[in-house]
Specification:
single chain; alpha/beta; D-Maltodextrin-Binding Protein, domain 2; five-stranded mixed beta sheet; 10 helices; 10 strands; 37% helix
């Protein structure tokens, strides 16, 4: 009889324990990789959460969401991909929010990057030039557009190497597998070594970045709280630190 009572007591104790917090699964554009090393700790101090972060090219992340990937929040580097997932019913259009505008730079591992320009990339010393794949990476689209407007795309086309996303593109230059890279300012500012030159924002379509809460995950409430954090002063301060232009701010040529 005591054994049965003990079993029932244990069962009651287990049933009364709070359920583990639902993970917050975030799909974020690769240019946010460095910023999220600070965003996640700052957010979880305010809202204790188990954040599971996946970074990648916005186009590839959108494809995963359309195929049913259980993400709660999607932060894209292109509003077009947000429109795709909303139109398909995979994410809630009512939650869409523009959180930042990205900018691109020319980055080299060593010194002297601040002297570079788009025309200089056609020089013989640059045998391998890394950009993100423009087929699915917004930063690759911007890099291609800037090179075309500068009149050097045809001259550098044979020297281009493509990263799957802008973070991988940056790693190609960091590792020495590319002599130079066109990448996001946010990644350049988050690196310990290297030098870079800003690319005039007028030479490419603005990289307006938006987010949306998605429906295949199990933590829409947590996703909305993270979205709210990104537009609050603490979240905006971190995004600004990594070179993002924020909604309501005036575009500046200085990083």
């Amino acid at each position: 009889m005591r054994t049965i009572s003990a079993i029932w007591g244990l069962a009651l104790l287990v049933s009364c324990r709070p359920k583990p917090a639902q993970p917050l699964r975030v799909a974020a554009a690769a240019d946010l990789a460095h910023a999220f090393t600070e965003l996640v700790p700052a957010f979880t101090v305010q809202v204790p959460s188990d954040v599971k972060l996946t970074t990648g090219a916005s186009g590839l992340l959108a494809r995963q969401i359309l195929q049913g990937a259980p993400f709660d929040l999607f932060l894209a580097a292109n509003t077009g991909y947000i429109a795709q997932v909303v139109k398909a019913g995979a994410c809630d259009g009512a939650t869409q929010l523009q959180y930042a505008r990205g900018r691109i730079v020319i980055w080299v591992k060593g010194e002297g990057g601040e002297k570079l320009s788009l025309p200089s990339l056609a020089e013989a010393r640059f045998r391998h030039i890394a950009i993100a794949n423009p087929e699915h990476a917004p930063y690759g689209m911007a890099a291609r557009e800037a090179l075309e407007r500068a009149g050097v795309w045809a001259r550098v086309a044979d020297h281009l190497v493509y990263g799957e996303n802008v973070q991988q593109t940056f790693e190609l230059a960091q590792s020495g597998n590319a002599d130079v890279a066109v990448v996001g300012l946010s990644l350049a500012l988050g690196a310990k070594h290297g030098s870079w030159a800003m690319i005039d924002e007028a030479s490419y379509t603005p990289i307006d970045q938006s987010l949306v809460v998605c429906k295949h995950g199990g933590n829409a409430q947590g996703a909305q709280r993270l979205a709210d954090f990104l537009k609050a002063p603490a979240g905006r301060a971190i995004l600004r630190k990594y070179g993002f232009l924020l909604p309501g701010e005036t575009l500046s040529k200085a990083p």
